[in-house]
Specification:
Shape: elongated
Helix content: over 70%
Strand content: under 5%
Order of helices and strands: HHHH
Number of strands: 0
């Protein structure tokens, strides 16, 4: 029990930092950029990579995850920097996790 907080901390780091960074690299840097190169259609590439991103998550969260994917895709395309999309995704996930914890759902 003395170190129970470490497990919670590691779960938070994984869900709020490591996961979003890995997902942005996969779905934005690899998939979206490949689709842009293959189709030369930025909008279609962002929508398709966002669809793949949303399908990799829970059906219950599909609409918001799809929107997060679109925003991340636009951020990466406009800035030409996947770190900007990663930062947005990290902040989004962290805010969601902190909200759940604040409501007593993190126990």
């Amino acid at each position: 029990e003395r170190f129970a907080w470490m497990g919670a901390f590691m779960a938070f780091v994984t869900a709020a930092i490591i996961g979003p960074c890995a997902e942005e690299f996969l779905f934005r840097r690899l998939l979206c950029c490949s689709l842009i190169e293959a189709t030369n259609r930025v909008g279609i590439a962002i929508l398709l990579s966002s669809l793949a991103f949303a399908l990799a998550h829970s059906a219950a969260t599909f609409p918001i995850v799809f929107l997060v994917g679109i925003i991340s895709g636009l951020l990466m395309y406009k800035t030409k920097n996947v770190v900007v999309a990663m930062t947005f995704h990290v902040l989004f996930n962290a805010s969601q996790l902190l909200y759940v914890i604040s409501q007593g759902g993190g126990q």
